Amino acid sequence: MINIDIITCLPEILNGPLSQSIVKRAQEKKLINIEIHNLRDFSNDKHKKVDDYSFGGGGGMILKIEPIYKCIKKIKGSRTIDEIIYMSPDGKKLDQKGANKLSMLKNIIIICGHYNGIDERVRENIITSEISIGDYVLTGGELPAAVLIDSVSRLIPGVISNESAALFDSFQDNLLGHPNYTRPESFNGWKVPEILLSGNQKKIDEWRIENSYKKTKKLRPDLL
Questions:
Q1: Fold of the CATH domain 170-223
Q2: Which of 61, 91, 145, 161 has the fewest Cβ atoms surrounding its Cβ within 10 A?
Q3: Residue 157, preceding peptide bond in cis (omega within 30° of 0)
Q4: To the nearest 10°, the Cα dihedral for 90, 94, 100, 104?
Q5: Are 155 and 105 in contact (CB under 8 A)?
Q6: 190-191 and 129-132 beta bridge pairing
Q7: What is the pLDDT of residues 86-123, one digit of tens each?
Q8: Considering the entire predicted model, what is its pTM?
Q9: How far, in Å, CA of 10 to CA of 113, rounded?
Q10: Are the C-beta atoms of 3 and 79 separated by less than 8 Å?
Q11: What number is the average pLDDT over the span 35-50?
């Protein structure tokens, strides 16, 4: 089982994506344990404030170091942490290789930034890696955290009923996934390739590999 602790000042945003579909089933099977920590619970401020103005001026509020530090210290008191991740557009872009690596760990902390970011001392002294889901800026790190958890959880053995399906995901071998078809065999004159109806699994596998390559060459030649 993998434990994922999420530190956020807006836990409500995560309730939806983490309580549905595959991530929900993974938690029900006790293959993944997700705990959401409200950063405001670790604030010394009587109004539970967790942000403040930036030294030197400039627009935007910054998440303070004290509540983040206190929350991480509490989590570390119950288990040894393998990775402390800060979701940030500055970080290394999430890819399938990275998701595979994280799925092998046991205890992960994810920090969700908000407002205009977090105190730089958190990045310099506490986190072990920064991860981005793309070269764009969002309001906070909660949705990127949900994306990261979804990509990791489906790789844990037992989460997906047909585990071999994950082996054919796009990017697992630097190729996009092969085309897929289902019933009906013909619709509006558009037909399913005959090879997929043949029952010859060896030929079908060869077709899939060939078409994965063709698809990658057409849509994402940079992967080749």
A1: Trp Operon Repressor; Chain A (1.10.1270)
A2: 161
A3: no
A4: 30
A5: no
A6: unpaired
A7: 999 999 999 999 999 999 999 999 999 998 899 999 99
A8: 0.88
A9: 10
A10: yes
A11: 95
